[in-house]
Amino acid sequence: MNNIPDVQGSADSRHLPIDKVGIKSIRHPIRVLDKSGGVQHTIATFNMSVGLPHNFKGTHMSRFLEILNSYDREISVENFETMLWEMVKRLEAETGYVEVQFPYFINKEAPVSHVKSLMDYEVTFVGEVLPHGEYRQSTKVVVPATSLCPCSRDISERGAHNQRSHITVTAVTNTFIWIEELVELVEQQASCEVFGLLKRTDEKFVTERAYDNPKFDEDIVRDVAAALNADPRIDAYVAEAENFESIHNHSAWAMIERNKMSD
Q1: pLDDT tens digits, one per residue of 143-194
Q2: Which of 56, 172, 247, 263 is least surrounded by CB atoms within 10 angstroms?
Q3: Residue 1 lies in a domain
Q4: Which of 74, 100, 126 delimits the end of a domain?
């Protein structure tokens, strides 16, 4: 077996480094702490890569899977950074990138009846080892919400068109932030938040709340950005709002990107 050639480790003469090379769409168990003190066990989709110097022909793909499977079946937020440093070391790389996407559930209470139901949110953790040994981590949340059109409300004699929106925040943080805190920050900027289960009294409440709080997607993304600007735990962010229009066959979209550290 020792005589089998290592083709990936052989030299390459094209002098072209590769920014990222690795594996994508690998599913693996993950354990995530929630703010209520519990633990959520879920399945995440991993993308893992390293930078490949110009003089190496390829990387050792099997080592990515070996690293994942060495963590006693489950990756957690606590060992996420450790796993990334181990990946870079084992693959003899200077830079590394791990993206972990998973569903996260929050038990929400309806506004009037107080009936509880689970809401799922798409969450992504991204860890990066940058050149010169710097580590950076960001959290991305996709939050469903309601938006109601201010123009429609003002020009219509009866009602106004509204739509479900996806508000997405990708935040680079300088300390730990609960997923629930990011979700709450985002939901507060919409015309109204959405719920998994509503009784008739709740439906009346959320319909009237949205009508009393009309917002374009431009309003939503600016309000989200203002809240992120005011939070000292967040160093940089991308805020996006996409409204799935109910009277058009297209979405309305807006985005604000800011690095607070470079201001």
Answers
A1: 999 999 999 999 998 989 999 999 999 999 988 899 999 999 999 999 999 9
A2: 263
A3: no
A4: 100
* Rounded alpha-carbon distances, angstroms, from residue 1 to 4, 10, 58, 61, 66: 6, 18, 20, 19, 19
Same-domain pairing of 168 and 252: yes
Residue 2 domain flag: no
Q: What angle do CA 258, 100, 57 make, to 5 degrees?
A: 95
Contact (Cβ atoms closer than 8 angstroms) between residue 174 and residue 154: no
How many structural domains are present in the chain? 2
Token digits for 59? 């990387």
Domain extent, residue 55, equals 8-100
| Domain termination site, one of 46, 67, 100 | 100
Question: 93 and 150 share a domain?
Answer: no
Longest dimension (CA), the chain: 82
With both helix axes pointing from N to C terminus, report the angle between 80-90 and 61-69 in degrees, rounded to the nearest 10: 150
pLDDT digits (tens, 9 = 90+) for 118-138: 999 999 999 999 988 899 999
